[in-house]
Design a protein that fits this description.
Elements lengths: L6 H31 L4 H28 L2 H21 L3 H29 L5 H16 L2 H12 L1 H22 L10 H13 L8 H12 L6 H9 L3 H29 L1 H18 L10 H25 L6 H16 L2 H12 L3
Helix pairs in contact: 1-3, 1-4, 1-5, 1-6, 1-7, 1-10, 1-11, 2-3, 2-4, 2-8, 2-14, 2-15, 3-4, 3-7, 4-14, 5-11, 5-13, 6-7, 6-11, 8-14, 9-14, 11-12, 11-13, 12-13
Length: about 375
């Protein structure tokens, strides 16, 4: 099939990312607060995320192998299913273990989505438009998150957690159904699952030379972010005393900035190259890290820190995934994305627990 006939996959991924983004951003905002209301400590919440990352890092090469052997479309569907399950768990039980496993699936779902959606996208458009393509499908999430964090926080205050989780579970199911209806599989030659699995795990430990620079960068970058990102809403609550709707509003600001700047970031990625854009994204992230913990008594300036956070994400996303795509071939693209994201999760494994432990012990550094 010609690239022009496969642009429907770009829109299928964008719609799916928008609907999944509504549910994902709501879950990210209210689930840590839900756990805190149940009496779980920050250290316990950090441990859950660390467990999720450890489980995910061990299984992501399998996701990459599935992308190259079973198909891109199936693994995107699987990522949607893994997002829906965590939203369903609080409706059924408040026991710690099922909630912890649900949180694990939530984080794994994103990293499974990444190799599958990236491979499907790269197969579907002209390589000269990769930055544009990644910015389009990435746009769905911040657009959804422009309303979801605040809306979910407000819903919790008015209707409670059960109703909020149920509404966003239904939205995630709608996203899965829309994707299955619209998307077209692009994998033409399917490799053996056993061979793909062996190569995927091998690549995770012995990356091709052309990719080796990206491994230490990815490890350090994700370990730094994951010390605070999974429990940011709890930090807002504890440090600044914000309500769920106030926390949601601040998180919404970062996603509005993402939505506004992603199209420009994608175009710049194609014009000046992904490496410079990745560095720019990290600089914006450092600005957020410098501002966020130091604004007690100046809460109105939290808006500035969230603008820096949103800008960091929008600069980083299309540039990072474009860089990986340019350094991999069609026959092993799923395995490459799987191995890189496996490293992301491995780096993330100790970070949330370390971050929550340090905060519980000595406060914000």
């Amino acid at each position: 099939m010609r690239y022009s006939s496969l642009w429907r996959n770009v829109w299928a991924l964008t719609i799916f990312n928008f609907l999944a983004g509504l549910s994902s951003a709501a879950f990210y905002t209210i689930f840590p607060l839900f756990l805190e209301d149940l009496g779980h400590s920050l250290s316990e919440i950090g441990f859950i995320v660390s467990l999720a990352s450890l489980i995910g890092s061990a299984n992501l090469p399998l996701a990459g192998a599935l992308v190259d052997s079973v198909g891109r479309k199936f693994v995107v569907f699987l990522s949607g299913l893994m997002l829906a399950i965590p939203l369903a768990v609080p409706l059924l039980t408040h026991e710690f273990l099922p909630l912890a496993l649900g949180y694990a699936l939530y984080y794994i779902s994103y990293f499974i989505w990444s190799p599958a959606s990236s491979s499907l996208l790269v197969d579907s458009i002209d390589p000269r438009n990769l930055g544009k393509g990644f910015s389009i499908i990435s746009l769905g999430y911040p657009l959804a998150s422009a309303v979801s964090p605040y809306l979910s926080g407000l819903m919790v205050e008015i209707y409670g957690y059960w109703f909020s989780f149920f509404v966003f579970l239904m939205i995630s199911v709608l996203g899965i159904l829309s994707f299955l209806t619209l998307a077209v599989e692009t994998l033409r030659v399917k490799s053996s699952l056993s061979e793909a699995l062996f190569e995927s795990y091998k690549m995770a430990f012995r990356p091709p030379k052309v990719l080796r620079w990206i491994y230490p960068y990815t490890f350090v970058d994700h370990m730094a972010w994951m010390t605070w990102w999974p429990i940011l809403s709890v930090y807002f609550s504890d440090i600044y005393g914000l309500t769920p709707s106030g926390i949601g509003l601040l998180i919404t600001i970062s996603y509005v900035v993402q939505a506004l700047t992603l199209p420009v970031a994608g175009k710049l990625t194609d014009e000046i190259g992904p490496i410079k854009m990745m560095i720019s994204g990290n600089i914006a992230g450092l600005m957020f890290m410098a501002l966020f913990p130091s604004l007690r008594g100046m809460e109105e300036l939290l808006v500035v820190s969230m603008v820096a956070l949103g800008l960091s994400a929008s600069l980083w996303m299309p540039s990072f995934y474009s860089a990986v795509a340019m350094l991999s071939g069609a026959e092993n693209r799923g395995k490459v994305y799987g191995s890189v994201n496996s490293l992301c999760l491995l780096a993330s494994a100790p970070a949330p627990f370390i971050g929550s432990y340090l905060y519980s012990s000595i406060g914000v550094i």
